[in-house]
Amino acid sequence: MACHRPFRRCPHPGAPPVCGPSPHCPRPLLSLPAHPQLAPAERAFPHERIGGDPLATTIKDSGPVPDGAAPEAMRKSLGVGAVVVIAASSTAATTSIGIGLGLMAGVVGLHLPAIMLLAFLPVLGIACGYGRLNRVEPDAGSSYRWVGRTLSPWLGFLTGWVNILSTIVFMAYTTTVTGSAIIQLVGKAGLHELPGVALDPDSSVQCTLIGMLVLLTATVVAVRGLDLAAALQKWLLIFEYAVLIAFCGYGLFAGDQPFSLSWYNPFEIPSLSALAQGMVLAVFCYWGFESVFSVGEEVHDPKDASRGGFLSLLLMLGLFLFAGTAFQRVLPIDELADNGATGLAYFAERLAHQPLAALPLVALMFSAAASLQAAVIPTARGTYAMGRDGTLGPVWTRLHPRYRTPATGTWLITGIALALAAVSLVIPTVTELISATVNAIGIVVALYYALVAIASAVRFRHLLRENLREGLTAVVAPLLGGVALLLVGGYLAWTFYSSTDHFELAADNGWFELSVPVLMIGSGLLAGAWSRWGRRSPYFDGAQSV
To answer: CB of 159 within 8 A of CB of 450?
Structure first.
């Protein structure tokens, strides 16, 4: 006979933690069918997994979570195809190519393919760690949960915190990039001014205001559900990649710059400082593949998240090498470096006339808009997991009553990103804003990637004795990747510190660029202290070493 009451432990003292009637309690307990993939204790209490993990299985959600109540599960709606789309949208290859290659060329010279290939190696090692951790413990908190359980709750909280802040900063600057692409596009169509205002694609004020409207639209779609978001992003990606491949393929043959194998030689990068900064910029271009692991609870099979992450990484590598080579075949180094945020538009104009030359701008606009949507999705899942553990407030765990998405958290994140985008208007030009943001985020990304890699190595160290092949992918590869990123990020932070002797609110001031990651980490420690002693979150007591 079915029982419609929520399943829970018997509250009477001495009652055994098993399903079925108990002599200690006059009320019958709910009898559940055995689950073939769960251990006995997990079958008894599927929402209270061993080790304190809630939400390990899919259960029916009944609405927003009241204060003090245990949240329920999100809807499983994604397959491997949708996962690849989300990861590819998060990495935003077209945006990285359109605005990032020019920035990197100003650092490493004509070695764009070399730095993209070199940065791929540690990122691939990090991806091995993510994939292995997700196989054994799919969780909306992903790195926050894994690092906290394996290394330390404090490091886990810090990982989740800086991940969230980095993505919010990324959303703020991508809002401006999206607006810049739109202004460039309408300029190609002949619209150069509005009543009393001359449109400028390098004006951070104009670009940010226009991009804010796009961010709000992307948030509405994200709240509607991952299935709709993935379906929309799929068609955007198809258009972006078709345009990108067509123009870069033509550029390989039509370009007049002599091809050289030295473009692929990292040993010819001008200096160690250029290598470190170029590595951070390149790692930033790959950043976002791990977004698939934050939707692990909404994927039909956890392995699909791992497959999607690796497939998107390989796709990004191919596109970056292809585009880097094509850009250097068409543009001399000075033109490539000088155009910065408008590099893709300049590249297209060298290859085609209007209106065809506007197609890459349309692709850039679609890529930036899709990456805004793809950024808010995993961030909302991260805050959902932290709210579920009590490290953030219960407001972050409230699900949409119809779409079963963390709608409240999604809108809060969007609001914070909009506020930060407004604050960033103190940096006058889009190119300077991008440079300052990417360098700052790159250092933080290197840090939390390294922490996830170390967590994987520690958690699966036994595989080195039991299965050498598995040990190499789950322990050695992540550890090497993590150490490499720590060294690169640490060296870049030192170069920023030693590059000047005063603080100035300018994108090229080393202390200003270093202040952003320092503030992220410092605020994370303060927030962690409040969660530990103010909120008294059980996360800091219950995280277990593995």
So the answer is: no
